[in-house]
Amino acid sequence: MTAPASGTLKAWLLTDAPASRNQARLGRFYRGWLSFQTNPLALVGLGIVLLLVLMALLAEVIAPYSPVVGGDLRTERLLAPSLEHLFGTDGQARDILSRILYGSRLTLMVVALVAIITTPIGLLIGTTSGYFGGWVDSVLMRLTDIFLAFPRLILALAFVAALGPGIENAILAIAVTSWPPYARLARAETLTIRNTDYLNAIQLQGASSLRIIWGHVIPMCLPSVIVRVTLDMAGIILTAAGLGFLGLGAQPPLPEWGAMVADGRRFLIDQWWVPTVPGIAIFVVSLGFNLLGDGLRDVLDPKGGE
Amino acid sequence: MDPTTPTPAEERLGASSAGAILRGGVRLLVSVALTFLGLLLITFLIGRVVPVDPVLAMVGDRASAAVYEKARLELGLDRPLLEQFWMYLEKVFSGDLGTSVLTANKVVDDIARVFPATLELATLGTLIGTLFGIPLGVLAAVRRGSLSDQIVRVFGLIGYSAPIFWLGLMGLLVFYARLDWTAGPGRLDIAYDYIVTPETGLLLVDSALQGEWEVFGDAFRHIILPACLLGYYSMAYISRMTRSFMLNELSQEYIVAARVKGLSERRIIWGHALRNAAVPLVTVIALSYAGLLEGSVLTETVFAWPGLGQYITNSLQNADMNAVLGGTIVVGTVFVGLNLLSDLLYRLLDPRVRMRR
User: Fold this and answer.
1) Per-residue pLDDT band at A117 (split at 50, 70, 90)
2) DSSP string, B312-327
3) What is the Cα–Cα distance from B298 to B300, expressed in whole angstroms?
4) pLDDT tens digits, residue range B285-337?
């Protein structure tokens, strides 16, 4: 690679001698991006995810109809896809495209909230367990193993049964069932750095355990946990859609994609587009997250790949 | 030297490995027991926080305060939580999972009735997944980067991304409604009901044993679509794992040695590399089997398959908590059991694990 001309932004980012911590950080991001963008499939995944975010942000602007209020029940029910209704209309004469667009908000909300809830729990339990070792480790890992030994969907079902159906409870149930792999991962990462010289040096300086875990251990574990969370997002979307399909997630009239498939089931034989289109939406979005996660793993965690 | 008497070194190795296996086994059993206890604790706690009043469900809302109080004491709800948990454990271990409100049967009997249907489906699914997944994975590893490798990868990606309930509906639409290759939802056409007396509960086995080939054919036409669906997901997982295990084996030195020796490529791949990759694969297959039991919840709903998954979801929608928690315990137990089995098989099959420790 030829060295970029000095003075450009690229040169500033790729310099071997960064002048500040932020410059070094940005430079590292840029290098990661450079290797990420050589992977076309990962770019497709990123595109899909960005599209999902855009859809969610602009749903009001681009959706041609209301997602909840349908048209004339006598004449506009179950219309085939046409220019007026790109994906047709459902059993209550609602425009399917509009419902899909608004539904992207629910999907994004589920993914974001589950990630926000589970990442800290996993990090906290994993790093504490790995850093302290001994009986703390035994107890926490036993707890993790119990949750790991459970079938995820069934456990989520049982939780929703206890809490009552609804999208918030579905999110909670999914979160409760998906933190254990992150805890395992964070623990493994902690164990690899636990006896390094720099951690010993900090200990000798008298730093408290809290400070060491928060300031030095968690940052080291963060990249691999983030990759793992991204890789799991497709699974989270599928579980949420499954709960919605069973009628335990988002309740009508919310345009949740899984519930839309369940709602359209009755029309499968004659109006196939009603259950098919929301299913395609779920498929494309989880494919996007899978591709993005694979790409991120290759960049951030080269030893994790093949 | 007499080949039957072991050398001292061998003897030492044998003795220490027998002790190690025993110790490892005890540790494994303790961990399984703790996991199982945790499972019961979770279901117990879920049962406590449910907004359904168990006393009210029993006595009805017209009962007087005295009757209500008596029933509450009988259920032991006035005791400390720990004692209640102990009572719960006693009940579960004596095989009592409560009574289903919906069917008015004992939950244990209900589950015994519906479980074979799920077992049949998941078993056939795993068979399909293994039969196709392993050769595909081997092919992808041997011809790394080729078209077949890409195809296997795409198959896997679709399997990891497509919602199983939607793919099931698409299967029904194409193969049942449009092409009419398979039968529709359900386990059997009404016309064939009650011809076969259930012995094992597995319709395919029962009908074959009793020589009712017409019933067998109909049952097969019903099971093939959901089984292929589950099999596809299992195949996606198994082929991906086979590929990575095989790539690992093929890069080992003993493969080079076998090549230098002049063995045919076929023998190297199927006789040497796959044989070593088979050890971790056993674990993968057991895990995928457990995963299918879980996947069957959604699949059974789509195909109106009268199994455990449908039983759980039906009970859920009717707030029948005893049935839901009973089903959860059974699925969880099978899960833990399969995990244990895969662990044991791994120890048994891999000589390195057998010898170490």
Assistant:
1) very high
2) HHHHHHTT-HHHHHHH
3) 5
4) 888 888 887 778 889 988 888 888 888 888 887 777 888 888 888 888 888 88
Cα–Cα dist B30/B184, whole Å: 46
Buried b (16+ CB within 10 A) or exposed e, B152-179: beebbbbbbbbbbbbbbbbbbbebbeee
Q: Residue B106 gets which letter from DSSP?
A: B
ipTM confidence: 0.82
Spatial distance between the Cα atoms of B185 and B293, rounded to a whole number of angstroms: 18
A chain contacts of residue B167, beta-carbon cutoff 8 Å? 279
Measured CA to CA, the distance from residue B293 to residue B309 in angstroms comes to: 8
Of A151, A162, A290, the CB nearest to B332: A151
- A206, pLDDT greater than 70: yes
Q: In this complex, do B165 and A261 lie within 8 Å of one another by their Cβ atoms? A: yes
* Residues found in chain B: 357
- Compare CB distances from B163 to A149, A158, A283 and report the shortest one's residue: A283
Which residues in chain B (332-351) have CB-CB distances under 8 A to chain A? 332, 335-336, 339
Q: Which residues of B33-50 are buried (b: 16+ CB within 10 A; e: fewer)?
A: eebbebbbebbbebbeeb
**Interface residue B276 vs chain A (CB under 8 A):** no
Q: Which residues of A touch B327 (CB under 8 A)?
A: 154
What's phi and psi for A95, nearest 5 deg? -70, 120
